[in-house]
What we know:
By secondary structure, the chain is α/β, with parallel strands linked by helices. It has a domain at 113-312: Uracil-DNA glycosylase-like domain (Uracil-DNA Glycosylase, subunit E, 3-Layer(aba) Sandwich), CATH 3.40.470. The protein has 13 helices and six strands. It has a six-stranded mixed β-sheet. A hairpin with a 2-residue loop joins strand 5 (267-272) and strand 6. The protein is globular, with a radius of gyration of 24 Å. It starts with 8 loop residues before the first helix and ends in a 10-residue tail after the last helix. 33% of the residues are buried. The model is unreliable at 1-15 and 59-105 (pLDDT under 50). The structure holds uracil. Uracil binds at residues 166-170, 173, 179-180, 182, 184-185, 206, 286.
Amino acid sequence: MASGTPKDPIAENGHTAAAPADRRALAALLDFYLAAGVDTGIDELSYDAFAASEPAAAAAAASASSLPQMADPPFAAAAPAPAAGRPPLPGHAPQAAPRPPVAGTHQAVLPDDEAIVAARDAAHSAATLGDLKDILSRFEACNLRLTAKSLVFADGNPEADVMFIGEAPGREEDRQGVPFVGRSGQLLDRMLAAIGLDRTSAYITNVVPWRPPGNRTPSPQETEICKPFILRQIELVAPKVLVFLGGASAKALTGAPEGILRLRGKWLDMPLGSGRIRAMATLHPAYLLRTPAQKRYAWRDFLEIRAALDACAPAPTDGAPD
Ligand code: URA
């Protein structure tokens, strides 16, 4: 058994050991950051990203009112905006110049009408799901990709009759690059199993393919710029039945003004491309984890979905000759 004072792992790593009171303060600060959704390390030093985005916002607003003069290419990053830095933290040298939000070349942009039209053209140019994923992986006009670790494209079987669409990936989905693999994904898997489905017989994706920092709701601009891609994804998968998981997904894709509690469980006839798809909104598994008493409504919806899939399945043949 080792003797003497236990070694301080922080000091051993070459850093100065913090006094216990400082450590508690530090841990409390980190707790606060996590609770506030600040859970992604982007840079070593802090700076005011709101101030940095103001000139870009003003430029975007000015360009939106003079669209014909705009000539940015579809996937272009905006020119770096000058930013006011924060006062340096004690112990840090003052920053010479503001730094971009991530190491790399991309700067946050506000999507304008032209960027949305460009996103639509890019999405339409995809002839296959592989093309669409490839185009999205190079698409730079959605700020969420700056903080996300992965592009979370889809999971499941693209040949499936049913497609489920959530809102946006969470932390675990971002880590693995696969939709619905965290706690709500595990519940979704159980709900699928309850009607005889799994990821070989269902296709699963999200409206927004990048995780919003801290799992915040995607902004209307972020949703709008991603919408052409999810619409194209629906066209390419061409499911017989579409299921919106939660109100945000239903609202983004149908424009329905009702809240999810009114909208759920009703069949909608959604126009898409040259055809129409039967669609239903149901309760999001994350909501069901918070309010388990509502699971009975989701169960009703899933039974409806099962019946719709059975109705569109080819009639079984008994093998008897005519
Ligand atoms: N919630 C969603 O809407 N999508 C996911 O992929 C995970 C959680």
